[in-house]
Fold each of these.
Amino acid sequence: MDAGLRVQLEGSEEVPVIRVAGEVDLTTAPELRAKLAELPAAGGTVVIDMSEVTFLDSTGLSVLVASWKRLCEAGEKNSFRLVVNRPAIQRVLDVTGLTQIFEVFSSLEEATKP
Amino acid sequence: MTTPRSSNSRGDEPWDGVDKSPERSLVLSIPARPELWGLARMTVASVASRLGFDFEQIEDLRLAVDELSIACARGTVPESVLRLSCHWSEAGLYLECVVAPVTSVPRDEEQDLPAGLSQKELSESILAALVDAYGISIGDGSCTGWLRIAS
């Protein structure tokens, strides 16, 4: 029933990349929350690659918001970046106004640029 | 009709005269467990597809029914059941989600998030943006949510 979620920590120490694939909903959001909690507390630039996310609801969004808030509190210059290239995911970010607080990129290459 | 203990809505009331005839209705009853809500999303997507909704509208509906389920299933107990009713006409689609039994509405566990960014507020923003009207009310040990979207 559950399309499942795959979450992997990749990238470099300087720019960690969390690659997320599948459906982020009330059932799977805790898995994403746990992986985001593994990110270095000091912050810097963090990239969440959501290009393979097929469904994202408010529980998934609230996990992202909590992580963004934690990163902001760790340092003013920290950067929380999302990679989004599916219209349905972009739309949910647009209607909730979260594109105003997250940096959203259409490719991983763009998001990992200094 | 029992007066709701609490409610939240956008738009007017549910369609007057929703056609609930069996040939224009579908009812899904499942345990109110989040891991089964994919069934509700699939059901609504299937109905909307048959009604000729386009891909984007179907994606919107999948998300809207998920948010409605989340909103209605606050305060569930292990024996709670989610009953999703879909009714359609030429005008569009009307969905009703009833979860029972439910206990009191739990407090928002994300009070420390900035204003407008708690899960509940994000959910309300999504519903307000994606459907033409919706409402959620709690009373009598159950929670009822509805939404409608024009075809």
Note: Chain B touches chain A through 29 residues (CB under 8 Å).
Amino acid sequence: MTQSGNIGLHPDGAPADSVSSLCVPIVFVPGVMGSRLRILPGRTWDPDDATAMGVWVSQFSGGKQKTRSALRPASTTAATLTDFPDGWVTKKIDSAADIAWPQDDVLGNARCRAIATAVVGTDDEDTLVRYYSEVRNWASAAWGFYGSLLMYLETMLNPSGDDPSFPVYAFGYDWRQSNTTSGLELSRFISSTIARHTLASQVILVTHSMGGLVVRGGLAHDGFMVSRVAGVVHTAQPSNGAAVCYRGFLTGSRPPFDPMAATKDKLLANIIGADPQSHAYNMSGLAGPLQLLPNSLYSQSLGVPWLEGQGLDSQSVSAIYNLYRRPSLPGIMGIAEAAEANCASKAEKASHQVTGDLRDNLTEAEGFHQTVVNTAHDRTYVLFSTGLLTDHSISFEGLGGVREDPAARPRDRYRRDGDDVIDDWSHIRFHRRFDGDGTVDEVSGRCPNLKVLPPTPERAESSLPHAGLFPVLNDQVLHYVRRLLTPSG
Amino acid sequence: MEFSLYFARFSLPDDWRDTSTYRYLAPRGEGTLVVETSREPRDSPELLQTSWETFLAVWRPALIYQKEFLLQRPTEPSLRAIEGELTSLDATGRHRFALVPLVSTEWAAVMTFLLQPRQDFLALVARATASFAFADEPPPVSPSPLAKRVRPYGAQLDIPRDWAGPTTLEFMDAEMDDVDLTITIDEPMAPAGTIRWASKVSGPIRILHETITPSHSGWTAEWALERPRPHSSPYLVRKAAVGIGDHQKVTVYGRAPQTAGARLDPGWNAVLASLRATTAP
């Protein structure tokens, strides 16, 4: 689609003589749930702040509806946070600085202090981060997930600190809404970012997880955005969806499914829904996350029908979404109907809001995947992680024989069988394998349907969990950003 | 029924529901106390059981240990509660937590403490619990003259002086769950004529109509908003900014489906009328 400008680099990767004549901002796009949001009125979604997330645990009958309403973009508005709380940066920057330079911690911290002196007039790293939070929108992205990457790219690409040629921005976004909407907002963010730098005409995008779909949604719907992007580095993108997104409708986020996930990931997943009905109740309103359901290419990449035994002969996008819309399993509409009956408020029941939301958002997801299915920037690199136990397909051989046991605890209904998990109540087998990052199966993370630049798709040098790619992956990301900054790219 | 949020006092019709969640922030992000109150009376053991299950549904992955302990309140001989420890989200440290269910004849409340480890953690929990009083109870004697006494919604309690109090309270109409009011305090005062629906709102929104009028010491505005999605019906959204002194304001949000807009009127009118009459620094 486009070619980047002619940007020279020193042999060690630092900006060279081109600094005075070119500027290429780097824009980082986080994954699902990875943006810090103020949700009006009265709520904050901040994965960095466990105590803020505690408010999402509702104790009384109206609280569950309040949580759904707050999560539902059609009911509430959201804006990304623009600052960190007082004293918070000090606590976080220490851990980020310690891990941002894995090869030479002392050098890394010294480099950071030198840049702080150049940029904010003091060697205080906290002040530097707070400054970038304001001028580069860093506070919009969850620091615990992404802080080390932002600092690493900023300091490695701009060693002199002042007047950087490759300023690193974060684009936090309302992850609840459709990735098409977020993609168009990203396009506007790119335009405003370029306008802030006289010498800039293009940006480089770095994405994590669903952030990749945001970028591709923007590229597919806004031709102007294409011309303003010099290249993209996707990391852990579920390009064709993730089975775990579907599985949540059957199991919620209960154990024993995600043993490898970090505590923070489990907590965030539990807020969306620890049990199937809570999960369906909240997820039905979330247009963006529903676009992570596996699309038709997921099965093709896997080589077997990922919903086994369902006669999915047609491999079209419509076929898989028609299947999701079925009232009984493997359709998920029936789960939403049960959630509407058992969790919803009177008003939600009267307007069939839960099932209506799910129907609408599945239609939107179908349209999204039909549009972006093969869309990628011409200069795209893909990084993924694998080697961790990951959901990849589901067998429904026993459907129809559901056994409800009132005396049994829901958590005891599941048992492991090798790598798989079996639901003894409904006889559903959840197939898992060590080919993914714990969330996204390798067949999706490799982005097989996208035309990407060699030598990628490239796997991470070690098996990293989906939400824990950074800082270990920092160096690989930097490597490909630098390649995009060279004409031969 | 009268409520207060710091220095602002306001009224709501008796039939508005109380599912308000509010939180106090410890300095430097060291922790929080979340208080949720409801006119949904239960017996204490049941409330402890259900609130613990709710808490555990989210926090189980981080749980290190939990145990029951007893607390004292002036109105009850002893109160069963649960305390324990959680791993911090980045797995670099720990948090102490305590879950305290409180009941009266009309009300129920759950206090959830979540703080970085500190030696006086249980003492803090005990002090805040002892100072807690529902609206229908006589206020207890403050156990510490250094504590800041606040009267949020439906209750009062003491918290350490340097903690930040809640800024937002939420109320729902008793008949229709998606008609609600939110009262927020301490935002910067909106300059005259500049009140807007919201700044930096994401996503496409179509404003169907807009009226903005001067109102007592602030501005009152009303919008009908529509999200261009097939299932999203038009919403009536009202926002009023009521000035208090030179630097504070109370913002009142009202929200209802357009077809149920009339349900918003009693609560909206009562809040604005009472703010006008009683608000004082």
Note: Chain B touches chain A through 62 residues (CB under 8 Å).
